[in-house]
Amino acid sequence: MDLKKFLPYLSGICTSFIFGFSFLFTSIGLKSVKPMDLMAYRFLTAALIMTILWAAGFVKLNYKGKNLSNVILLSLCQPVIYFICETYGIKNTTSSLSGLMIALIPVVVAVFASLFLNEKPNLYQVLFIILSIAGVAVIVLLDGYEGGVSKPVGFLFLTGAVISAGFYSILSRKLSENFTPFEITFVMMWAGAIFFNIIDIIQRISNNNLMDYLKDISNYNVIVPIIYLGIFSSVIAYILHNFMLSKLPASQAAVFANLTTIVSVFAGILINHESFYWFHILGGIMILTGVWGTNYYARSKNTNALQQIKKRHTS
């Protein structure tokens, strides 16, 4: 048995668990600091950790002769746009509902693969995509009707996060041909650190509270989420995620978002004691079923295509 074949899948499982708890820790951190503060701390921590690993010789970086423009574009999608949308989305919903929305990423990847990679979805895929979107609509409409804690603007932000994550998956898969997972992640973390800290410092200067930058870090309810989000969810998870994307097709790798959803939902309910109503279950089942169907019929289509190619070669 070749264990190397299982490493991408093991990476996906580990990444899903880390990302699943990230919604909970983000929710905890946002109770003490503003979204931009939390993102500034998170990515500065991640960037410094990665720089220390490189300086100590644990990993190598080689950008000589490589075009960094697409890596910068990827960094704009994620972490910049994605985490602005995700963080403000979590702030205006709950960690469990955020996880359900993130389950749409595989569907978005399938749609983008159709648009940008000319991988056209079949009728069954289209129907399951519609089912996932309907699941989100059920949660959004009934949550507002029942007077839930989520706000419509939260779902809009989370939709932006899902779309940017879709672009990221496509770009990362393409960039893996020329860059290592660590090289991609290194640029991503520093892009996030520079962008979010500049914005955070500008906001603090305008509010005359620049000296509170370090004061927030002394808060236990801030430092714990920063450690988890900065080290585990940014450095470790993204290296594993980019490694997985370098070994598996983007649409197949995106399916691990399903596990992220399950972890985030249970973490929110069991640890953060978040409310979870019947329509959340209904909508969640519709979303996950739609995701499963979209990717199942994508694999069936690919299998049939491979069989036809083999027949041509053998005939």
Provide a brief overview of the structure.
With 315 residues, the protein is mainly α. It has helices at residues 7-29, 35-55, 69-91, 95-102, 105-116, 123-145, 152-175, 181-206, 213-217, 220-247, 250-253, 257-270, 278-314. Residues 305-310 have low confidence and may be disordered.
The total tally of domains equals 1
Low-confidence stretches: 305-310
Mean pLDDT: 81
**How much helicity do the residues have?**
over 70%
**Number of helices in the DSSP assignment:** 13
Number of strands: 0
Amino-to-carboxy terminus distance: 32 Å
Give Rg in angstroms.
20 Å
- Oligomeric category: single chain
Percent range for β-strand residues: under 5%
Specify the overall morphology. globular
Largest pleated sheet:
none
Order of helices and strands: HHHHHHHHHHHHH
Q: What class would the helix/strand composition place it in? A: mainly alpha
